[in-house]
Write a structure and sequence with these properties.
This protein has 370 residues and is an all-alpha fold. Helices cover 59% and strands 2% of the residues. It has helices at 11-56, 68-85, 88-100, 118-128, 135-144, 151-154, 160-163, 165-175, 179-195, 223-237, 247-262, 286-302, 307-322, 351-369, and strands at 3-4, 7-8, 196-197, 202-203. The strands form two sheets. It has a two-stranded antiparallel ribbon. A two-stranded antiparallel sheet has the order 3-4. It is globular. The two termini are 39 Å apart.
Length: 370
């Protein structure tokens, strides 16, 4: 029985009072759950829409061998679509493509671009436990470890830090052969020493840009190049044991880059291709933005980035990218294959841009779900 001012209140009045107080709270909780569910469904739907458009509009290639990395990044994104939406169709498409490639890496045995497809093989191997899926990966890296390569020789462009290191960390995890981590560390940190600028806490694309200024006297830090690196660190750390001696070193670089990149977000939520001189090419670009969004959302999800600081940046980037997806599902404003800041066009699309967006969407989905 409910008492008010020391007087007994009849049950019928109690019940009315209870409903007046409690029902709005229950309704609010219900509305919140509905809103959350709606947002999650919207992210899943846009992932499917973008994935389907790209599948129906494959980019024609001059050389399917040397440009395999572009499609590989898209198929990494397709696996993210599968993991997020639970739609087996996407996994089966990826599986068929990998079978058609006979689970082989590219023909350039030491080139990171030809190793990135291994990220997909390893993800499938986790599910199917078929040794044939990783046989060529093991062969390639076992051969590489026989030679005294330095990072500056095999990963001498910053994009390479997305392509190959996550393959090695994942391979070490699945095979329990820790020499792959040791090898990855030796190459990664050598490339870091060569290309990382400790003042601006960003990576030069390659050694051509060190001590080189643009026409406005600014250092040249390429948006997508740094997107490759920070997204590559995320994918590397996903498989590197937190107790490993170099885990905190990688995390430290990630945090420094995140801080530097966050400061350079545009008012539209996107990033320009030239991070230090955004007015040099004033049109915003989506592939670098997608990689940054992916990395930031991962950092919040893992508790490494402060939610109150980074969540508004992530939300702005997400809204900004959605505005550049047309009704059919094409992600535009993707800078074409290149190695430095440059112009961006409305119609510009590429499979790696789509793959980067799908990775961002998958982590954004996790962020909303949590």
């Amino acid at each position: 029985m409910l008492y008010l001012s020391h007087k007994l209140i009849p049950y019928s009045v109690q019940r009315t009072f209870y409903l007046i107080l409690i029902l709005p709270l229950l309704t609010g909780c219900s509305d919140e759950k509905i809103e959350k569910s709606t947002k999650l469904q919207e992210v899943a739907d846009i992932m499917k829409k973008v994935s389907d458009w790209q599948l129906n509009n494959p980019v024609e290639r001059i050389n399917d061998v040397s440009e395999m990395w572009e499609r590989s990044v898209f198929y990494i994104g397709l696996m993210a679509t599968y993991r997020t939406t639970k739609d087996e169709r996407y996994k089966n498409i990826v599986l068929d493509w990998c079978i058609s490639n006979e689970y082989k890496l590219g023909p350039r045995r030491t080139h990171g671009d030809d190793h990135v497809i291994g990220q997909i093989y390893l993800e499938l191997y986790e599910e199917y436990q078929d040794p044939a899926m990783i046989e060529d990966i093991v062969s390639v890296f076992d051969d590489m470890m026989m030679y005294n390569w330095s990072g500056r020789q095999v990963w001498n462009w910053c994009d390479g830090l997305f392509m190959a290191p996550p393959v090695l960390s994942h391979l070490a995890k699945l095979t329990q052969q820790h020499q792959y981590i040791t090898y990855m560390d030796s190459l990664w940190w050598d490339t870091y020493e060569a290309l990382f600028d400790t003042d601006d806490q960003l990576f030069y694309r390659d050694n051509r840009y060190i001590d080189t200024l643009d026409v406005n006297g600014k250092k040249i830090f390429w948006s997508r190049g740094n997107g490759w690196v920070i997204a590559g660190i995320v994918r590397l750390l996903n498989h590197l044991p937190k107790t490993h001696p170099t885990y905190e070193r990688y995390l430290d670089v990630y945090l420094k880059m995140a801080n530097s990149i966050a400061l350079r977000q545009g008012i539209d939520g996107l990033w320009k291709t030239n991070l230090l001189d955004p007015n040099r090419y004033p049109i915003s670009e989506t592939s670098g933005t997608a990689f940054f969004t992916y990395a930031f959302a991962w950092g919040v999800n893992q508790g490494y980035l402060h939610k109150n600081i980074y969540l508004p940046l992530i939300d702005k980037a997400w809204v900004g990218m959605l505005a550049l997806i047309n009704e059919e599902g094409r992600l535009g404003y993707v800078q074409q294959p290149w190695h430095e800041p440059g112009p961006v066009y409305v119609e510009g699309h590429q499979e790696y841009g789509t793959g980067a967006f799908l990775l961002a969407a998958s982590e954004y989905y996790n962020l909303l779900a949590n």
